[in-house]
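Q: Second attempt. The first request was missing the SMILES, so the protein and zinc ion are both included now.
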Amino acid sequence: MQIELPKDLPNELLYGRAGFLWACSFLNKNIGRETISLTQIRAVVAEVIKSGRKMGKGRCPLMYEWHGKRYWGAAHGLAGIMHVLMDMELKADEVEDVKATLHYIIRNRFPSGNYPSSEGSESDRLVHWCHGAPGVALTLTKAAKVFSNDEYLQAAVEAAEVIWNRGLLKRVGICHGVSGNSYVFLSLYRLTGKVGYLYKAKAFACFLHARAQALISEGVMHGGDRPYSLFEGIGGMAYLFFDMIDPMETRFPAYEL
Ligand SMILES: [Zn+2]
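A: Got both inputs this time. The predicted holo structure:
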């Protein structure tokens, strides 16, 4: 069966080609290699690279647009697309473009160490998986592992410091809440084995366990636009609690394979 994707499909993770590719990797990992053929996957990867190069001309090797903005974060932008591309079988020149795109992101972060939500944005405000340091940190942690590169690891460590220092978010979920930010520490813990990261994840998780329900009912914390969902609500928090039982096996759901 040949999979035909619409020509005008965006490339980002939540609605676009990167999300499709992630789902292919998930099926091939959990059901069996070539459940989705590598030829089919390759055709979509080639499209992602081609459109990234077209838009990236000049400044950054790969760049993408979604709803008129050149996003950097995991949900709609570079961090999410690079994260998925690192799981693909890439040609040597494509690998170089992914690496150079990651360097571009690191070079152009805010002086605070946080990352803009989109190209040219000067608002150093969001520290979420979807927009800001947490999504980028997960991508850099993965890059440190895939490319055995200390520069990416160092940048991931610095992004994790930003997340810790900016503190607790007002929401509980994984997309833009405390649970999602906890996964950055867990990812660094898995990679480095340093217990300091586990303690930080545990601190966030214990806060949620002890206080979230009460603070939501008092209106101090926000219950989320979709209060029970995996990405925005207590579904994501419950997922984190399950993961904390065996921290070395944790994965940001629907993102880390
Ligand atoms: Zn979000």
